[in-house]
Amino acid sequence: MYYSNSGDELMQPYNQQEVMKLEVFHGSDRHVMILRSSNNIRIIDLMEELQNITTVPVQNQKLYYRGQELQTMKERSLRDVGLDNNAQVRLIGDPVKSRYVAIMARNQTK
After folding, report:
1. CB atoms < 10 A from the CB of 56, how many?
2. Bridge partners for 64 per DSSP
């Protein structure tokens, strides 16, 4: 899986595999994910990758797509639940680490 925060990069298909772009919104953050072989990717695979990106543990994630709670269908594929190219998913959950701790700590020492 490839992801970027800007979504401006142009990704070329690798070996003509099917490629799917997902936008995941978490609070004020937007994560653009480029997925290869999207037919084989399960909801749990997406949740584990989101844990790596956002530090929200899988067990604390709530994923919503068009009114569906995706975390209740962990073993189903993205295609099975209707996710397609350019789909927008909402992630709800608290991260275990703040991305801004280092900046705040550095400013307090001055």
Report:
1. 21
2. 69, 90
Structure confidence at residue 108 (pLDDT): 62
Local confidence band at 14 (pLDDT 50, 70, 90 cut-offs): very low
Helix, strand, coil % over all residues of the chain, rounded to 5: 25, 30, 45
Q: What does pTM read for this prediction?
A: 0.73
List alpha helices for 21-98, DSSP H: 43-54
Is residue 16 packed enough to be buried (19+ CB in 10 Å), middle (13-18) or exposed (0-12)? exposed
> Are 65 and 79 spatial neighbours (Cβ–Cβ below 8 Å)?
no
Using only C-alpha atoms, what is the Rg of the chain?
A: 15
